[in-house]
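wait is this the right file?? whatever heres the structure
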């Protein structure tokens, strides 16, 4: 115990100690935090659907009809009508043969990679991929080759070098929208490489699904290559406002995971209320209101990012609703987050190991139902706070 306490004290002294903050009430553009009304700039509820009345009613209706819990894992008695309906809806949305629902994004990425890739195969993983992808690569037992962030030239060289001693399959895996920088994967180039080198391409589009593309189908739709991606992973808990995750792919891929993915096989399945809400969310995202919310989100992103860029801050190449403000080191980063919260703006400071050393940042995330005037004021407050930090 003494050793644990010492480690925590050391983390606190380095500005690296993590603590929990509790929100009272629903997720929205403003929330109650420790008795104070604050502007929420660190939620992934991008389209503002987490408290949408249609999702709430769908969740309640599903719970009344099917009960609170699913009772078992999917391969026992935990596959209910709503699981089948949601998987069919996801496959139609992503234009694939089939889909499979997982209990979280972490469970999806670890289970997909562990279930599809074997020792003897090679995974090519972007340097800034999400931690769940990194852990999935480790669990797979395959050899993992990490390529520099978004560097398709380097990836091509690595694929070429590995081809001379190839014994199994190649799989390229990337985030669609990178969660800490807010930039996009070069999917058109990655598709061309995977076709040249006979590889599978997996895209984790947790932060793109619902948000990007003309109909919200994500990064691949935005970049015009939706039908050329082999494995479409995404979450239900961000823009879709619900909980859970999925893979959309060919039927043979889904059947393989049903038989091999440990995070799928050994987990009690998602409850009916979550499934009902997710079905309503896909209908909403796919309709006129979804288009309106995407337009509002993009307008908010442009306003907020432009104000910050005019103030001279580094936004890490972001082109999406994830707007990081580079701050450098942990102590000033967390001091800036504290001052902003005191002033009524809740934005998280991000430190290692989530980001590399020296690349700490304030990670702001925008929502469709943020008010433009509040975002403008928040951007000015961020600039003022950063200018007042000790050098």
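ok assuming it is, sequence goes like this
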């Amino acid at each position: 115990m003494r050793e644990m306490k010492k480690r925590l004290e050391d983390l606190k002294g380095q500005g690296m100690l993590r603590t929990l903050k509790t929100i009272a009430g629903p997720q929205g553009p403003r929330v109650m935090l420790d008795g104070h009304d604050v502007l929420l700039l660190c939620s992934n509820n991008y389209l503002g659907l987490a408290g949408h009345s249609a999702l709430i009613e769908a969740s309640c209706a599903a719970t009344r009809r099917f009960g609170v819990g699913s009772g078992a894992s999917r391969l026992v008695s935990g596959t209910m009508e709503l699981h089948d309906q949601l998987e069919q809806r996801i496959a139609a949305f992503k234009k694939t043969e089939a889909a499979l629902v997982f209990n979280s994004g972490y469970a999806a990425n670890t289970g997909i990679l562990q279930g599809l890739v074997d020792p003897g195969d090679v995974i090519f993983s972007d340097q800034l991929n999400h931690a769940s992808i990194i852990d999935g690569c480790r669990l797979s037992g395959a050899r993992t080759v990490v390529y520099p962030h978004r560097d398709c030239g380097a990836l091509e060289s690595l694929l070429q070098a590995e081809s001379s001693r190839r014994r199994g399959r190649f799989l390229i895996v990337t985030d669609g929208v990178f969660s800490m920088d807010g930039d996009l994967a070069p999917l058109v180039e990655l598709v061309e490489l995977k076709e040249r080198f006979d590889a599978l391409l997996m895209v984790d589009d947790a932060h793109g699904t619902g948000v990007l593309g003309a109909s919200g189908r994500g990064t691949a739709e935005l970049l015009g290559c939706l039908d050329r991606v082999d494995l479409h992973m995404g979450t239900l808990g961000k823009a879709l406002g619900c909980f859970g995750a999925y893979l959309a792919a060919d039927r043979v891929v889904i059947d393989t995971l049903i038989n091999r993915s440990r995070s799928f096989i050994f987990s009690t399945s998602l409850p009916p209320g979550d499934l009902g809400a997710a079905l309503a969310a896909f209908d909403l995202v796919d309709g006129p209101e979804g288009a309106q919310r995407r337009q509002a989100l993009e307008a908010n992103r442009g306003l907020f990012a432009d104000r910050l860029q005019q103030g001279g801050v580094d936004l890490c190449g972001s082109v999406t609703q994830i707007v990081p403000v580079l701050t450098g080191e942990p102590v000033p980063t967390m001091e800036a987050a504290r001052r902003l919260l005191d002033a009524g703006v809740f934005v998280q400071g991000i430190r290692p190991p989530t980001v590399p050393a020296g690349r700490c940042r304030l990670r702001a995330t925008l929502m469709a139902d943020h008010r433009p005037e509040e975002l403008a004021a928040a951007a000015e407050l961020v600039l003022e706070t950063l200018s007042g930090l000790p050098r």
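The longest strand covers residues 322-328. so i think its the right one actually
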